[in-house]
Design brief:
Elements (H helix, E strand, L loop, with lengths): L1 H22 L10 E7 L14 E12 L6 E6 L6 E5 L5 E4 L6 E4 L1 H5 L5 E6 L4 E8 L20 E5 L4 H4 L4 H8 L4 E5 L5 E2 L2 E2 L3 H11 L7 E2 L10 H9 L5 H15 L3 E4 L9 H14 L9 H7 L6 E5 L5 E3 L14 H9 L10 H6 L19 E7 L17 H11 L60 H40 L1
Helix pairs in contact: 1-13, 4-10, 5-10, 6-8, 7-8, 7-9
Length: 523
């Protein structure tokens, strides 16, 4: 029979289509790209895949990048925060500006800027730019390690004040993977000190470790930091005195922290233990300053410059690490679906693995344990446990259920969704009916002059100024499935239809065979 011969073949074909669609979604690769430069010292460092080596730009410095196939996107790892720079398609001469956000690790969507057939581009950098690596990727999925940062939050569900790069992975262990990674909340990290330079000595490692660790635990919004140097002290007075010695005052701390609160408008704020965990003066100064600015952040006469620019704000909740009142205990040992079943604590351990420059400290054993007694759960940590917080300030009531910093709080996404649902749709007014007898108007003389010259098409701009990330700013983009996903869904549907058809037809065949066998038996 026809269906007996061809349905098995159809089933096999659909299966092959399904598998090929799934397997075809491969990561883009950077191997095979050619990179040459002009005006850079140590140009060999531009393509050695190591952020610990770097190359500096002089006047009129540029880098030419090419692939035999086409360039889908670039990933540029700077060593110092860059100024704006430009990218040019060497075939068409079209250009675009990049670097407006000042990201240390910058993703550049070349195909979005110039189209899909770009094989060679030139990157032009101002003097003083320092670059660690440049990667030029082929077509394919963006690898997990490539960081596609979003700008800092306009509205942060959670704002974490972390004194240093690595505190967010240690004393605040689990918070970032839980709320940013698993739940997808808008989480903003604000660092009290920067690690680029202290006492004139540049650090070419910790800023990269900071970003790599944040990205690994699910943070998508770029962090912010002050320009205060990393200085050590062991008390509040010691911290005030140490920072004063380099020209940083308590007022500077207050100004920075109140601006963060007003700028990001957080629903929940989290910060250090009042005693600075192990007694670090910067931790103590951070929380002492936070407690003071919470009392005045809604007053426009206090630090009026930031109030005028950002408006005033008071968080709905503030949690302090190890605070003894209104205690909250986080369960950080529950498997998280977004991280393949790993727990929030395990993901934080993974995040701290990127902070290799700090693995010589006692922090390493504190979070990982030893070979003979490894730490695999947050509950195993006794001193400065990352599970314990206290509700320091609230305008939405005290926690009753416990275990969640967002008890009694709806995230911004939920609030906006509810507002949209409650907003009646706009309707166009219906024009009033007119009496044909009274609708006559005076005739209008038509212009018979040639209007072909009165309407001109705008000239194509010589230079494109589109930000590479503009293609991601449309909120509707998230609802558009990729071609791979669309093909995969179609293949699955066809596969299911074919299987159902085969089952039905096989059932018909079996039924006919039974009837034929029954007739023979009756004879």
């Amino acid at each position: 029979m026809f269906y007996k011969r061809f349905f098995p073949a159809l089933l096999v074909s659909l299966t092959v289509l399904l598998l090929s669609t799934y397997i075809g979604a491969a990561d883009a690769v950077y191997e095979g790209a050619k990179i040459s430069s002009v005006g850079f010292d140590a140009p060999q460092n531009l393509a050695d895949s190591s952020y610990t080596s770097y190359s500096g730009a002089s006047e009129n410095a540029s880098v030419t990048v090419s692939r035999n196939d086409h360039i889908q996107f670039l990933y540029v790892v700077f060593d110092l925060i860059p100024e704006e720079w430009s990218i040019t398609d060497n075939l068409t001469g079209s250009s675009a500006l990049c670097g407006a956000n000042g990201f240390l690790h910058e993703y550049v969507d070349v195909s979005s800027i110039f189209g899909n057939d770009v094989k060679s581009v030139t990157l032009s950098f101002p003097a003083g730019t320092v670059i660690a690596d440049i990667y030029a990727f082929s077509e394919g999925d963006i690898p997990d390690w490539v960081q596609v940062w979003q700008p800092p939050c306009n509205e942060a569900d959670l704002l974490l004040f972390s004194s240093h790069s690595d505190d967010e992975q240690l004393f605040f262990a689990g918070i970032l993977p839980l709320y940013a990674g698993e739940r997808g909340y808008s989480v903003q990290v604000a660092y009290i000190v920067q690690h680029f330079e202290v006492y004139g000595q540049y650090n070419h490692t910790r800023p990269h470790e900071q970003l790599n660790g944040l990205w690994a635990v699910g943070v998508k919004n770029y962090p912010v930091m002050s320009d205060f140097p990393d200085l050590y002290s062991e008390s509040l007075d010691g911290a005030v005195s140490t920072f004063a010695s380099v020209g940083v005052t308590r007022d500077d701390f207050s100004e920075y922290m109140i601006e963060c609160i007003r700028r990001f408008k957080p629903l929940v704020v989290v910060s250090h233990d009042i005693n600075g965990e192990y007694g670090h003066g910067t931790h103590i100064l951070c929380t002492d300053t936070l407690r003071k600015v919470l009392e005045i952040s809604s007053d426009p006469t206090q630090y009026p410059s930031s109030a005028e620019h950002w408006g005033t704000w008071t968080p709905e909740k503030t949690y302090l690490h190890l605070y003894s009142e209104n205690q909250l205990v986080l369960d950080l040992d529950v498997p998280l679906e977004s991280f393949g079943g790993k727990t929030a604590f395990e993901m934080t351990q993974h995040g701290f693995s990127y902070h290799k420059s700090q693995h010589w400290t006692w922090f390493y054993k504190w979070i990982y344990g030893s070979d003979s007694a490894p730490i695999t759960k947050a509950t195993q940590i006794n001193g400065y446990s990352p599970c314990y917080y206290g509700l320091y300030q609230t305008s939405v009531g005290y926690d009753v259920v416990g275990g969640d910093m967002f008890e009694n709080i709806k995230t911004y996404a939920v609030r906006h969704a509810e507002e949209e649902a409650n907003t009646p749709p706009e309707t166009e007014p219906i024009p009033p009916e007119t009496d044909p007898d009274t609708s006559e108007t005076d005739p209008v003389e038509s212009d018979t002059s040639d209007t072909s010259q009165s309407v001109t098409e705008p000239d194509e701009p010589d230079t494109l100024t589109k930000d590479p990330d503009d293609s991601k700013k449309d909120p509707d983009d998230k609802a558009k499935p990729s071609e791979d996903k669309t093909l995969l869904i179609a293949a699955v549907v066809l596969f299911c239809v074919a299987v159902a058809a085969v089952i039905v037809i096989q059932g018909i065949s079996v039924n006919r065979a039974r009837k034929k066998h029954k007739r023979r038996t009756n004879r």
